[in-house]
Design goal:
With 455 residues, this protein is α/β, with parallel strands linked by helices. It has 19 helices and 18 strands. Strand 6 (76-81), helix 4 and strand 7 (99-102) form a beta-alpha-beta unit. Helix 17 packs across helix 18. The longest helix is centred in the N-terminal third of the chain and has 29 residues, at 107-135. The protein binds adenosine-5'-diphosphate and magnesium ion (MG). Residues 178-179, 243 line the site of magnesium ion.
């Protein structure tokens, strides 16, 4: 790292000289200016910190301060003055001065002040860089794929991220990228510099989830020895991601709804209304409409969440993205495992594209990871994808009997078997058959299939 550059602005040559000596000794790069005009010019050349006299021949230090702060709000300015009145001090602080030092000053004190100020700058820059590097992996481009289905989702995510509109509902099967979409929404929004908090509703008992979300007052329940802030408070200004919202207990659903509508809540055991500004993103792999019909999910909360629904398509509905995703994961694991795999064989790719991927992108990622661990050469072959190959072998292995078959009858029977095996969950049955939801619905209608009434 180059030595920090300090700009000394004073019209008295002796003061500039003594500061220059002392700060150079401490290892800093020092540049000087003696007028408002030259100070602004020197600053434009790039400095980390400014020691600024209040009285200058062509104006006052405050105008320099204003100009510097307008050009780069991160530059720290320490004002030096002999005429320290409360008014000038207040005004300088308002304009963003970091500190004030009275003339005559002690050079060691100034050196110490400079060191502290630069430490502040360094920390600020680190935080900024960290935030930038955190948000970078979560740009919309992090969502790999250019099929129509995913392109629509990406465009919608970009739009919603840019808008202040609040609640978002992400739906899609497990492994379709709901977590990823939530992070993209946060890190691409104006909320990116505030916290992203995430909680899985199914992982916690109802009362614990409640106090995690809303916090609690001391003594609210037996174990509440301390007051505790909840997720909504901690995430103020940012985003709260409620994963597996379909699993939330009804009483808590009611509290969440109240919060979404009123933007205020009470801590558990508390009386004060607390107001926060958070965007809530909820996600579920359940069919919430169906859950509402079965009275397991509150209808009013469903409508409140469903204002902005975003549906992540299953991988089998966008098989054209598979080569891109495989490429992406191969590159990622090449880095992680220090390998030099160039890609997958044509045969392996063909099978990867015909497999149904019930676990969606998560399953594809795991399959590639496993293959990358096993491979010795520079190409992944079908052998390294056992699940995929097993299902391919079966499909290819059905031999047409000499007597022929009734294809309609066979299809009907397979559809019924898939429905029975999945408990009449249409999307899971579709996965078993390598179909999408429309395709299975079409067949259910064609064969006039009906779920048997529960006996
Ligand atoms: N479109 C995509 N491009 C790249 N990686 C993806 C994509 N969608 C999902 N992933 C990755 O797949 C895995 C599962 O995604 P995740 O967001 O956890 O799914 P969900 O929350 O829907 O179960 C994660 O490792 C995620 O980074
Ligand atoms: Mg998830």
């Amino acid at each position: 790292m180059p030595a920090p550059t300090i700009l000394v602005v004073d019209d008295e040559q002796l003061i500039r000289w003594s500061l220059n000596e002392r700060l150079s000794q401490a290892g800093y790069q020092v540049v000087e200016a003696d007028t408002v005009k030259s100070a602004i010019e020197r600053h434009a050349e790039g400095v980390d910190l400014v020691l600024l006299d209040y009285r200058l021949p062509d104006g006052d230090g405050l105008s320099v301060l204003k100009a510097i702060k307008a050009a780069d709000p991160d530059t720290l300015v320490i004002m030096l003055t002999a005429v320290s009145t409360v008014d000038t001090a207040v005004e300088a602080m308002k304009q963003g001065a970091f500190h004030f030092a009275n003339k005559p000053f002690n050079l060691d004190e100034i050196a110490l002040l400079v060191e502290k100020a630069l430490e502040t700058t360094r920390l600020r820059r680190e935080v900024k860089a960290l935030r930038a590097s955190q948000s970078l992996p979560y740009s919309v481009d992090r969502i790999v794929g250019n099929s129509r289905a995913i392109a629509d989702v990406k465009a919608l995510l970009a739009k919603v991220a840019a808008s202040p509109a609040s609640t978002v509902l992400l739906t899609g099967e497990s492994g379709t990228g709901k977590d990823l979409a939530a992070k993209v929404l946060h890190y691409q929004s104006a909320r990116a510099t505030h916290p992203f908090m995430n909680i899985t509703c199914s992982a916690l008992a109802e009362t614990i989830l409640e106090s995690e979300l809303f916090g609690h007052e001391r003594g609210a329940f037996t174990d509440a020895r301390q007051q505790k802030r909840g997720l909504f408070e901690s995430a103020d200004g940012g985003t709260v991601f409620l994963d597996e919202i379909g699993e939330m207990a009804p009483a808590l659903q009611a509290k969440l709804l109240r919060f979404l509508e009123e933007k205020t809540f009470k801590r558990v055991g508390g009386v004060a209304d607390i107001r926060v500004d958070v965007r809530v993103i909820a996600a579920t792999n359940r069919d919430l409409e169906d859950e509402v019909k079965k009275r397991r999910f509150r209808e009013d909360l469903y409508y409140r969440l469903n204002v902005l629904p975003i549906v992540l398509p299953p991988l089998r509905a966008r098989t054209e993205d598979i080569p891109l995703l495989v490429r992406y994961f191969v590159d990622a694991f090449n880095q992680e495992f220090r390998k030099k795999v160039r890609g997958v064989s044509d045969e392996a790719m063909r099978r990867l594209q015909t497999y149904g991927w019930p676990g969606n992108i998560r399953e594809l990622r795991n399959a590639v990871e496993r293959a990358m661990l096993l491979v010795d050469g520079t190409e992944l072959t079908a052998d390294q994808f056992p699940i995929v190959s097993a299902s391919a072998r079966l499909t290819e292995g059905v031999a047409l009997p000499a007597t022929g078959i009734d294809l309609e009858q066979l299809e009907r029977s397979l559809v019924i078997q898939a429905l029975e095996r999945s408990g009449w969950n249409q999307s899971r049955a579709a996965t078993l058959l390598g179909l999408n939801r429309d395709q299975i619905r079409y067949r259910i209608e064609k064969f006039k299939l009906q779920k048997p009434a529960a006996s």
